[in-house]
TrEMBL record:
InterPro entries: Beta-lactam/transpept-like (IPR012338). It comes from the Bacteria. It comes from Corallococcus sicarius. This is Uncharacterized protein.
Length: 735
């Protein structure tokens, strides 16, 4: 029958359904699809609070030619493939499969942010397709067993996983609350920072406890170490109390800062160590983890609700729901959960926004919940917070430790243990991560200085926040001006690098895994008598943006900018020079961070690390105490012309000769009156001419050719220090 297109639609938001004649009868199939779409659309709108304003795309309905035996249908955006066992018959099995696949099509249209969340997609499709009753007729399955089946097949693409998912969905009366929350996120345009978890869907922790550890860089945000299921949300106990403290002490609410409260003898929640003073402040309550203080603070009516300004942060990194009251916020009731990964991301932002809160938490090993232990001295100077989740018999279900030092954020969760019983693992884990990696300390670089600041835009694919007076403000989900993001404090992207773009930049932009701040440099005055081009003036001035990442990420970014093909010992050699210069950059911009142009070392964002990058930074530091130069070098000859006007614009008029020796340009100019001329000999660093005329390298020869000057040379770069091309050719040598 060829292609046939449905012309009647039930709603303006319905897609056009196209059939190919291989599933029949076509008209009935299209009518079935339109009716199913209208029903699904109504369910979605009722839970999400509305529908997108844009029209959905065309959906093609066709016969599946490669369906697995257990599948009745499958799809991808814009296409649904169906199994039809009997031509001309649209049986109940096919209609159900069609509704299921159209539910996915609806989400791809209405909620594109959830496209990679398979559990959310399948849970929604099972709920709205009408197939749940059939799954519920299967033999009984425990909730924990069902959760294990779903966890073992995260794509939820097996019959056992779908049966388990149906069992979890069967816990709910009506539409699952977790799906409603997520659908409203879709409609509100909220970022999809973490995928739906089994715990969030079931509203309870149903999986057996498992140990998990994650270590994140404070500077780049990258996950440096992960062990166990670090993305699984579990109850958090007292581990989020620092966010209550931070919410209650933001600059805008200092007039209602946390009160001094008297302990109540005999009240279990106030049993937080001996020797409490007559009045307890929020600092001591935080270190001792005094539940009674936080409950009584809430009773004053002045405590932050739902973590205050930090609620959106915790939600963005995967908190399964905001607390209804203080008992849920401090973990006395385990109504919600957070993953170790999400906890680490939140503490990374807290460390950036409120360093004084982290400084307070360093006292935990001296007078808080981790004091008096043999490990306490090993954690001196490290900010720590503990949390314990207990069952009805007060036995520990989970123990949490969050630890933050100058470079790393560590979060460890241990089942059946109190934090004091596994805190000795923390210093060993921090040491282990530093030995496995290298260059984890901070590196700062002035970036994008050759561009107008207003032309630079950034976007965070994870959860982006701009900090203002210690309070986090969610960044726009789309590209926005970087100067606006950093106007009042650092800009931090959780779970992803910043993507930065600018006019005439690379398509799609560049990745910057780290933290941006706004820091205009002082005015730059070039040395008298030294020719300086406008571009050179910009480079030597520096940038309004300072970017912080790890030293190894900075080093790898510079090497990639200089020579992306470099590998082996030559890459190790250049990496060692780059890392050395980052620590000896004072002469380039006194009192400022190193810059990202060839005036310092080219840097065009962070890149994927190679083994040589880490190996280079594990080697001993170079012995010199000065800036080390390098260039691409090589022996490839080149010839380039520049107009005489260009050359004289840089060096002055009435040029007589140009010659090059020992890295310097020596030239003669005619001076004096017409009747008494004389030749004036002058000298400049050869690189001044190379940079000013944008020549491949320092020339070896120059000759005048009428209105033009011919320059000849070989290789690339200023020709001083390490010759990268020569290093590449010197196989068999160590770095």
């Amino acid at each position: 029958m060829g292609w046939a297109v449905a012309v009647a639609v039930l709603l303006s938001a319905s897609p056009t359904f196209v059939t190919r004649g291989d599933v029949t009868p076509e008209a009935d199939l299209r009518r079935e699809a339109q009716a199913a779409w209208a029903s699904l659309e109504a369910r979605y709108a009722a839970q999400a609070g509305g529908l997108p304003t844009r029209a959905p795309a065309t959906v093609t309905l066709q016969k599946g030619t490669a369906l697995a035996p257990e599948r009745n249908a499958q799809g991808r955006p814009g296409v649904v493939e169906l199994r039809q066992n009997t031509p001309g018959v649209l049986d109940a099995r096919l209609r159900t499969a069609l509704r299921h696949e159209l539910a996915h099509q609806l989400l791809w249209w209405a909620c594109p942010a959830s496209s990679e969340d398979r559990l959310f997609h399948e849970a929604f499709a099972l709920t709205v397709s009408g197939e749940l009753p059939a799954w519920r007729e299967a033999p009984y399955q425990s909730l924990s067993r069902a959760a294990k089946e779903v966890a073992s097949a995260p794509a939820v693409d097996t019959p056992r996983a779908r049966k388990g998912l149906a069992r979890i969905l069967g816990e709910h009366v009506g539409f699952p609350a977790a799906l409603t929350r997520r659908l409203r996120q879709c409609h509100d345009g909220t970022r999809w920072a973490s995928n739906l978890s089994v715990e969030e869907l079931a509203d309870v922790a149903v999986l057996a406890p498992e140990a998990a550890t994650v270590v994140v860089s404070r500077h780049s945000g990258e996950v440096l170490f992960a062990e166990g299921n670090v993305r699984r949300a579990v109850p958090y106990g007292s581990a989020l109390k620092p966010f209550l403290y931070a919410a209650g002490t933001v600059a805008s609410t200092r007039d209602v800062s946390p009160p001094l409260l008297a302990p109540r003898p005999g009240v279990q929640e106030w049993a937080c160590g001996a020797g409490l003073p007559p009045k307890v402040d929020a600092r001591l309550a935080l270190l001792r983890s005094c539940n009674g203080y936080f409950l009584d603070w809430e009773a004053t009516g002045r405590a932050p609700q739902a973590f205050g300004v930090w609620g959106p942060v915790l939600t963005a990194v995967g908190l399964t729901g905001l607390p209804a009251d203080m008992t849920e916020a401090i973990g006395l009731r385990s109504a919600h959960g957070l993953s170790p990964w999400g906890m680490a991301q939140a503490y990374r932002l807290l460390a950036e926004a409120r360093p004084e809160v982290l400084a307070l938490l360093t006292g935990n090993v001296e007078e808080g919940t981790l004091s008096g232990l043999s490990t306490s001295k090993a954690l001196k100077g490290v900010a720590t917070k503990t949390g314990t989740v207990r069952d009805a018999a007060s036995r520990p279900q989970f123990g949490w430790i969050a630890a933050v030092d100058e470079d790393l954020v560590l979060v460890a969760v241990r089942p059946g243990k109190m934090p004091r019983h596994f805190v000795d693992e923390v210093p060993a884990l921090l040491t282990r991560v530093r030995k496995q990696a290298a260059g984890l300390e901070a590196a700062r670089v002035q970036v994008l200085g050759l561009l107008p600041s207003a032309s630079v835009e950034a976007r965070c694919a994870g959860a982006g926040f701009a900090l203002e007076d210690g309070a986090p403000r969610p960044a726009p989900t789309d590209f926005s001006r970087l100067d606006a993001l950093t106007a009042k404090g650092p800009a931090v992207c959780l779970g992803s690098p910043w993507r930065v773009r600018f006019p005439q930049g690379p398509d799609g932009g560049r990745d910057y895994a780290g933290v941006f701040t706004w820091s205009p440099p002082p005015p730059y005055r070039p040395p008298p008598g030294v020719p300086t081009t406008p571009s050179a003036l910009k480079a030597r001035r520096g940038s309004d943006f300072v970017f912080r990442t790890t030293r190894v990420q900075y080093t790898a970014g510079v090497v990639a900018a200089e020579d992306v093909t470099l590998q082996g010992e030559a890459r190790v050699a250049l990496s060692r020079v780059v890392a050395h210069n980052e620590r000896h950059a004072a002469p380039r911009h006194p009192g400022r961070a190193i810059c990202d142009t060839t005036h310092c070392q080219a840097f065009r964002g962070t890149v994927r690390l190679r083994p040589e990058d880490t190996r280079a930074l594990k080697l001993p530091p170079l012995r010199w105490d000065v800036w080390l130069t390098f260039s691409q070098g090589g022996a490839t000859p080149w010839r380039e012309f520049r107009s005489r006007a260009q050359v004289e614009g840089l060096l002055g008029t009435r040029l007589v000769s140009l010659r090059f020796e020992s890295g310097r340009l020596r030239y003669l100019r005619t001076e004096g009156e017409a009747g008494a001329p004389y030749e004036d000999a002058r000298s400049l660093p050869c690189d001044t001419l190379r940079a000013g005329l944008q020549l491949p390298s320092c020339p070896q020869r120059a000759s005048f050719d009428g209105p033009r000057v011919l320059f000849e040379g070989q290789g690339r770069g200023h020709g001083e220090g390490l010759d990268v091309e020569a290093a590449k050719a010197a196989t068999g040598l160590s770095s």
